[in-house]
Amino acid sequence: MPTNSLALRATQRVARDASEAIRYACRQLSDHWTVEERQQRQIAADRMQADLATTLGLRQQLAYAPVPRRS
Fold this sequence. Notes:
Layout: H1 5-29, H2 35-63
Helix pairs in contact: 1-2
């Protein structure tokens, strides 16, 4: 069963870029947060990464779907 490797590579690239963006934003702003704000932001970042993983997991499943053949 052929896979859509271009979609798979794009999905992996999006995952890396998004995860790095979330980590970068947290590092840049964390110096200005109180402990409570830091904890709230970490929870939000964890949720964002979990949502991202779910979304990308679905996209990755689509990347492994059979590629329709042209007639």
